[in-house]
């Protein structure tokens, strides 16, 4: 688990063949797909995945990403992808940790930042909308 997070979700995945490059390691762009699987599980924990976001009249585009590749992921490797909600008052900041499923070794870390945008007028929200805050409060 990632320290000081409000919520944490983790999924186990096997690296598929189509995700590796000519050097037999996972192509760097695919790591964000793995993050997405864990992020979706995390958001479903509070009933605020993408369908619920849209129904609440907010989009949550990713505005910033960061990733650090510690060790390469390889075809058929079993990995654990964790997502931790670190900030939520003004934005969604989610930290990620990819570990080897067998050894627990840290393989990759990352962060994404999402901000709420009103679907009707495309205005960026400077604070998280009540739709998110109410769900988080209910989860606590």
Q: Enumerate the strands of the largest sheet in spatial order, edge to edge or round the barrel.
A: 1-4-5-6-3
Low-confidence stretches: none
Determine the structural class based on helices, strands and strand pairing.
alpha+beta
Most strands sheet: 5 strands, antiparallel
Radius of gyration: 16 Å
User: DSSP helix count?
Assistant: 3
Number of strands: 7
Cα distance spanning the termini: 17 Å
* Beta-strand residue percentage: 25-35%
Helix content: 10-25%
What is the string of SSEs from the N terminus onward?
Answer: EHHEEEEEEH
**Global geometry:** elongated
Mean pLDDT: 95
**Oligomeric state of this protein:** single chain
SSE blueprint:
Layout: E1 7-14, H1 31-44, H2 50-55, E2 58-59, E3 62-69, E4 78-87, E5 92-100, E6 106-114, E7 117-118, H3 130-139
Antiparallel strand pairs: 1-4, 2-7, 3-6, 4-5, 5-6
Descriptive keywords:
about 140 residues; alpha+beta; 5-stranded antiparallel sheet; about 20% helix
Plain-language structure description:
This protein has 140 residues and is an alpha+beta fold. It is built from 3 helices and 7 strands. The protein has helices at 31-44, 50-55, 130-139; strands spanning 7-14, 58-59, 62-69, 78-87, 92-100, 106-114, 117-118. A 5-stranded antiparallel beta sheet has the order 1-4-5-6-3, covered by helices on one side. A hairpin with a 5-residue loop joins strand 5 and strand 6 (106-114). The relative contact order is 0.23. The mean pLDDT is 95.
Short description:
The chain is 21% helix and 34% strand. It has 140 residues and is α+β, with helices and mostly antiparallel strands. The protein is elongated, with a radius of gyration of 16 Å.
């Amino acid at each position: 688990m990632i320290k000081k997070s409000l919520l944490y979700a983790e999924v186990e995945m096997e690296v598929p063949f189509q995700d590796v490059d000519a050097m037999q390691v996972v192509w760097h762009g695919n790591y964000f797909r793995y993050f997405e699987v864990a992020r979706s599980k995390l958001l479903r924990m509070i009933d605020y995945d993408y369908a619920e976001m849209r129904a609440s009249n907010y989009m949550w585009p990713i505005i910033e990403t960061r990733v650090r590749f510690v060790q390469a992921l390889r075809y058929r490797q079993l990995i654990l992808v964790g997502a931790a909600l670190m900030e939520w008052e003004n934005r969604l900041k989610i930290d990620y940790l990819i570990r080897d499923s067998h050894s627990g070794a840290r393989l990759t870390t990352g962060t994404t930042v999402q901000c709420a945008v009103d679907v009707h007028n495309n205005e960026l929200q400077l604070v998280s909308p009540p739709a998110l805050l109410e769900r988080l409060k209910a989860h606590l």
